[in-house]
Every structure is written in structure tokens, then in C-alpha cells.
Amino acid sequence: MNIKKISTFIAISLFVLSSSIAQDRLVRGKVTTFDSIPLINASVLIKSTKQTIKTDSIGNFSAYCNTPEKLKISANGFLTRNVKIPENVKVLLINLKLKSTEEAKEIATGYGHVKDKDKLYSMVSLNSKEMDFSMYKDVFEIIRGRFPGVRVESDQIIIRGINSITGSSAALIVVDGITADASLANSIPPHSIKSINILKDGSAARYGVRGANGVVVIETKRGNE
After folding, report:
1. Nearest Cα to 215, choosing from 206, 225, 204, 202?
2. 23-95 adopts what CATH topology?
3. Residue of 18, 41, 149, 196 with fewest CB within 10 Å of its CB?
4. Domain residue limits, the chain
5. pLDDT for 81
6. Domain 116-220 bears CATH identifier 2.170.130.10
């Protein structure tokens, strides 16, 4: 073996050795949406190695990473996140936001990212950072057609899958923490709305019997001051 070949061999060996040493940190993580719903088969890209791994049936993943390291997490129907892993962190909790489109939930469930479709429909939201509310006439126009399974009928908001025993199927409306009727909700200028959340099932349980038909939580920019 001549000197040139020996030098090449040593260089390659040192590179492999340094790579194996650099990637000796095992990082574990969990990918969710709405802070608690696990995302299945979400893609986790390790930027230093270009390796992509998938989350398991409960949203967990593990990977050997460099220090420092960056991850790119993505799933169909969700906004992609880039995460920088702090040097001493070995466990990550990553939450992906569902895209604010009518098709996003169908795409997410169609690709199998969410096992229980009803969980994805139990809480959905829109906020002023993702869409321009000033384009709409009133809050009911914003809600109409934006939330799959939610209907607006004569200024009443009917949430998917709600069966009322009281004769009314209208959802409870809460504006800045205070219960409101349809006329008050209708009087809110769309440009002053910060976010709209639709709650049902367990998410609406905090409102007791009043939330039996689901809850529409509206937060205004003034109420957040």
C-alpha cells in the first residue's frame, strides 16, 4: 500500500470515527397535535445526516443525533416545524398545528396521521395570524364553511354530532371568557377577533351542562390586553 492510499484510508477512518462519536446522543420525542393527540407516521428529518424516521402508533420516535442538531418535523395537513435541540435535552415534545383549511382534517386522517378521527374534530381553531378575519362580514360568516361538520343556521352554530335533549342544538358562545348570545357575537367586528375555537365532547366538559351542545370560544384582541 503506497503513501497516498494510506493517507486516504486514514482520512476515511477518522471521518467515520468522528461521525460515530458525534452521533452518540440518543434523543427521544413525541409528536402531537392539539397538545395531546398523537401523530402517527409523521416525518422527522435529522438535518445533519439527512436521515428521515417516522413516528410510531403513539407518536413516539428516537434518533441518534449530533450536538448541536436540528430536526424538521412534518405531516400531511399540518404546518411543518423546524426544531433546534438544546445541548442537554434528550426528550422532546413537539406539537404540530393543523393547517387552517377545510381539507386539512380530511388529509390528516386520510394519510393515517390520526387514529381516531373524532379526536381531531373535537377541537379545532382559527386565529388571526393564519387568516385575515377582516375579509368577512361577521363571526358567523367566518365560521360558516371553515369547520367541517359545523353548521350555521339562523345565527345558531350547530356543532357536528351533537344531539340535544333540551330542544335546542345551538352551541354555547363564550366571548373573552363571558357567555354571549348570538346578537352580541354578531356585533363583534371581525378585524378585532384574535381566535375562534370550536370545542366538543371532553374539550367542552369544563362548561358543564351549558356546553352539552359544544362551545364556540371567541377571543378578541381587546380581551387579550
Report:
1. 204
2. Immunoglobulin-like (2.60.40)
3. 18
4. 23-95, 116-220
5. 94
6. yes
**CA 139 to CA 218: how far, in whole Å?**
9
Contact between residue 66 and residue 22 where contact means Cβ atoms under 8 Å apart: yes
Dump pLDDT digits (tens) for 79-101.
Answer: 999 999 988 888 999 989 888 67
Q: What is the DSSP letter of 208?
A: G
- List of long-range contacts for 52-59, beta carbons under 8 Å, 24+ apart: 55/30, 55/31, 57/115, 58/30, 59/30, 59/31, 59/32
DSSP state of 98: B
pLDDT tens track for 14-48: 444 444 445 568 999 999 887 678 999 999 999 98
Position 16 scores a pLDDT of: 47
